[in-house]
Amino acid sequence: AERTTNVLLKSIEEPPPRTVWILCTPSADDVLPTIRSRCVEWKVAGQPETPEMEQARGLCRVLAQGKTLPAAQWLVSLENRRIKREQLQELLQDAWLLTAQALLLQAGKPEDGTLPEEAALLSRSLSSRRLEGLSALLRQYSAECAYNVGAGHVLGALCAQWERLLHATR
User: Fold this and answer.
1) Residue of 84, 22, 80 lying closest to 52 (CA atoms)
2) What is the C-alpha to C-alpha distance for residues 12 and 104, in angstroms, rounded to an integer?
3) 3-state secondary structure the chain
4) pLDDT surpasses 70 at 43
5) Contacts (Cβ under 8 Å, ≥6 apart) of 110
């Protein structure tokens, strides 16, 4: 089984040109963490919302304010609740997905009610430069959670980079 896993992992890491892998499973927990760390998770409509998605929505509502202090307070509250690195990774991936949907709206996708309200809020509230920067930060720090790092360190770094982004894109 380990050899098969290594072959699959190598194929996912270095796919042939124009190859896209789609792994389908009822739960992301069914996929080995080493493989999941190289994937983008897409949730299918109709699935129950995870606690991490609920938290991602909350984070996006706070970030849409475009202010440092509310975001810092929200991120500290996560650390105080002792969020686990794996939970933080999923939360940040979900928030990144919401920013990607917000970018689609800014690029002209019609608001047809199919996207979460937080995507629309981000799209209306943040400039395209801030939204692109935020999307990159969420993606970066979600990926950082694949390593053996403390959730508090990731949250602190995210907060510092969010502040830097806000000041850089006035």
Assistant:
1) 84
2) 27
3) CHHHHHHHHHHHHCCCCCCCCCCCCCCHHHCCHHHHCCCCCCCCCCCCCCHHHHHHHHHHHHHCCCCHHHHHHHHHHHHHCCCCHHHHHHHHHHHHHHHHHHHHHHCCCCCCCCCCHHHHHHHHHCCHHHHHHHHHHHHHHHHHCCCCCCHHHHHHHHHHHHHHHHHHCC
4) no
5) none
Q: How far is residue 78 CA from its own chain's centroid? A: 15
Question: Cβ of 102: how many Cβ atoms within 10 Å?
Answer: 29
**8 A C-beta contact, residue 126 and residue 77:** no
To the nearest 10°, report the CA torsion of 145, 151, 156, 159: 60
Distances in Å between the Cα of 54 and the Cα atoms of 68, 120, 125, 156 are 21, 16, 20, 21
> For 93-150, what is each residue's pLDDT tens digit?
999 999 999 999 999 988 887 888 999 999 999 999 999 999 999 999 999 998 989 9
DSSP code at position 25: -
> Token digits for 105?
């709206």
Q: What is the CA radius of gyration of the chain?
A: 17
